[in-house]
C-alpha cells in the first residue's frame, strides 16, 4: 500500500524535528588540547598528552605537574616559581647539610640534625628549605646530601 505524498512530507518533517531536537540536547565533550581525551577525564587538559603519563600518581599529568616526581595533587606553589612546594627546596646545596663544618655530610651531621629536632626549637642551620619548620622535606634534603665531601 502506498502512502500519500502529503503524509510522506509530514513524516519527513517529524523526522527532521526529532533529529534536530536530539542534536540540540546533546552535550559535546570538550577536548581543548586535541589529544583525544575529554577535558573532564584529561589529567592535563591544557597540553597534548594522549598517553596521560603521571609518574607520581597524583592525578595531575606530568606535562602539567609542577613537581612530577613527588605526589602533590594540590599543585601548591607558594613562591610562584613554577616549582611545586612539595619539591621546592629553595637555594639548598648539599654542603648546607654539613652542620658541623668538617667538610663532609655524614653521621655526625645526622646526629646534630636529630638533636636540633628534639630540642624543641628550629635552628636555621637545620631548616634546609627555609620554611621555619623542621619537616620531612628537611630530612629528604639531608638524606640527599649524605656522603657529600669537600664542603
Textual characterization of the structure:
The structure is a single chain. With 151 residues, this protein is mainly α. The protein has a domain at 94-145: Type 1 dockerin domain, CATH 1.10.1330. Helices cover 28% and strands 0% of the residues. The chain contains three helices and no strands. It has helices at 5-25, 107-118, 136-145. It is elongated and about 90 Å long. It starts with a helix and ends in a 6-residue tail after the last helix. The mean pLDDT is 81.
Q: Got a strand count? A: 0
The number of helical elements comes to 3
Unreliable residue runs = none
- Top CATH class of the domain at 94-145: Mainly Alpha
- Helix/strand structural class: mainly alpha
Q: What profile does the largest beta sheet have?
A: none
**Subunit organisation of the chains:** single chain
Report the portion of residues in β strands. under 5%
The 3D shape can be described as elongated
The percentage helix is: 25-40%
Q: Summarize model confidence as the mean pLDDT.
A: 81
Strand and helix order: HHH
Q: What is the CATH T-level topology of the domain at 94-145?
A: Type 1 dockerin domain
Q: Report how far apart the termini are.
A: 99 Å
CATH architecture descriptor of the domain at 94-145: Orthogonal Bundle
Indicate the radius of gyration in whole angstroms: 30 Å
